[in-house]
Specification:
This protein is of the alpha+beta class and 129 residues long. Helices cover 33% and strands 19% of the residues. Strand 1 and strand 2 form a beta hairpin. The longest helix is centred in the middle third of the chain and has 15 residues. It is globular.
C-alpha cells in the first residue's frame, strides 16, 4: 500500500494543496492525541497536524496550538515554524517544516542547545514582567 492510501484524508488533502505528492506523507512520532505528518516536494517540506473532534466542555487543542504558534511567531519568530493554515473543517493545521534532530534518551545537550532553549522561553515570557 502507498503512504497516501494509509494516510487520513486531511493529510492527503493538504499534501495536494501544498503541491506535494501525497505518497511523500510520513507519519511523525509524538502528538499524543494528534496525528502528525510531514510531506514534501522538490523545494520544501511541511508539517500537517490533525486533531480529534473537540468534545463538549474540553479546551479546543487545535485552537490553542494555533494561538500559541501565532503568539510565538510574534515574540520569538526565529524559533517558531510559520503557521500556514488553520483548517477548521478538516481539524488540522499546516506549518512549515523546520529541520532538526530529536534528542535521544541519555543524550546530554550541548551548551548552545540549552542556551537556545533558555532564549526561547525568555522571549515567550518577556511581556510577563
Amino acid at each position: 500500500m502507498k503512504p497516501a492510501e494509509m494516510s487520513p484524508s486531511f493529510a492527503v488533502h493538504w499534501a495536494r494543496e501544498l503541491g506535494a505528492d501525497p505518497n511523500t506523507l510520513e507519519r511523525l512520532r509524538g502528538g499524543i492525541n494528534n496525528q502528525v505528518f510531514r510531506c514534501a516536494n522538490a523545494a520544501q517540506k511541511w508539517v500537517i497536524k490533525g486533531y480529534p473532534l473537540q468534545k463538549l466542555g474540553q479546551r479546543d487543542r487545535m485552537k490553542a496550538d494555533a494561538e500559541f504558534l501565532r503568539y510565538s511567531a510574534h515574540v520569538a519568530q526565529d524559533f517558531t515554524p510559520a503557521l500556514l493554515e488553520v483548517d477548521t473543517d478538516r481539524r488540522c493545521i499546516v506549518m512549515e517544516h523546520i529541520k532538526g534532530d530529536a534528542y535521544h534518551e541519555g543524550y546530554i545537550p550541548c551548551q548552545s542547545d540549552l542556551q537556545a532553549g533558555f532564549s526561547f522561553i525568555r522571549k515567550l515570557n518577556r511581556h510577563k514582567q
